[in-house]
């Protein structure tokens, strides 16, 4: 390569967004494409990739592993649920766990993952660890997809300040041919296919050097049966769990119950409000007021139709408004939360004031009448 040409690039190569963000975005795109439920990030460092992945709604289990507990602990608090997660629990469940340990060791907590990411990890492994790594990741964990990224040493000539390796802790940096031959051999041994790509495009005219970060995406050829996971003989845990967060989820009955109760009361209040404002319009006519029935034009066309079809009309009797549970159940959000009418009844039993036959939510409007 022409020395002047190289010198020129050394001055100007700057990735936008920064390369680490491009690597993380690459993983996020992969998650959005393949929708894995369980994802493990090996060599997770300060958990920044895990933090990004916690927002991917398909993921229900996230795990991080690093040999350095301190680097994980720095920002692990960012993986904890926020108050808003409790106020509005998500429909999916999400558990995030961080383990302290080495990718050179097998631990049963790493079984059952769909996607395993190793971003800029392998070049930090000692020769003995690198030897064990394929058996741990591809042989033992055996996820459907493995992503491995590592520096492409051919790109280093374009990077300012890089003398031997890009980081003092790197044990090696591979050319494209070296990485690809290791990856192809690993894939062959464990029955995976591998596709090569990367992030950090080389400048125009320098395409031959390849991406700044080279990436191999491995796909397991045979679907793994539940049996092969279970057939692993019971083994001792060697990793130490340093963090665990279980996010509030509507899959958990106690959060579902709270959400349903709030939604039922909210829905009933809206119906009552509409009923009362209409009633006021009729207030000059005392007979109509006392025997007031809800008419269609209180509601949107959608609800109006339901009221007609299912003959479920809220009504006022004396100082009490009755809003049938069937009406409340027909509201999409309540319906989606509960699934069945029986479940709705079960979840609100004893928590919401119901009519004596349990078929309607009751509101006493005595004070509202006084105010009026
Ligand atoms: N994956 C992160 C950072 C990679 S730096 C990112 O995308 O930004 C490499 C990380 O691997 C470091 O945090 C280091 O502590 C960890 N590491 C090194 N050897 C390891 C081993 N044998 N097992 C697990 N983690 C290891």
Describe what you observe in this structure.
By secondary structure, the protein is of the alpha/beta class. It folds into two domains: 19-247, 3-Layer(aba) Sandwich (Rossmann fold); 253-282 and 296-364, no CATH class. The protein is 40% helix and 17% strand. The protein contains 15 helices and eleven strands. It has helices spanning 3-12, 19-34, 48-53, 69-74, 83-87, 127-141, 176-190, 226-230, 253-281, 286-290, 301-310, 325-329, 332-338, 341-348, 366-371; strands spanning 38-42, 61-66, 95-100, 115-119, 145-151, 192-199, 213-220, 240-246, 315-317, 320-324, 360-364. The strands form two sheets. An eight-stranded mixed beta sheet has the order 6-7-5-4-1-2-3-8, with helices on both faces. It has a three-stranded antiparallel beta sheet with strand order 9-10-11. Helix 6 (127-141) links the parallel strand 4 (115-119) and strand 5 (145-151). Helix 9 packs antiparallel against helix 13. The longest helix is centred in the C-terminal third of the chain and has 29 residues, at 253-281. The chain is elongated and about 90 Å long. The relative contact order is 0.11. The model is unreliable at 294-301 and 303-311 (pLDDT under 50). S-adenosyl-L-homocysteine binds next to helix 2 and strand 2. Its EC number is 2.1.1.386. One of its GO terms (molecular function) is metal ion binding. This is Small RNA 2'-O-methyltransferase. Its cofactor is Mg(2+). Belongs to the methyltransferase superfamily. HEN1 family.
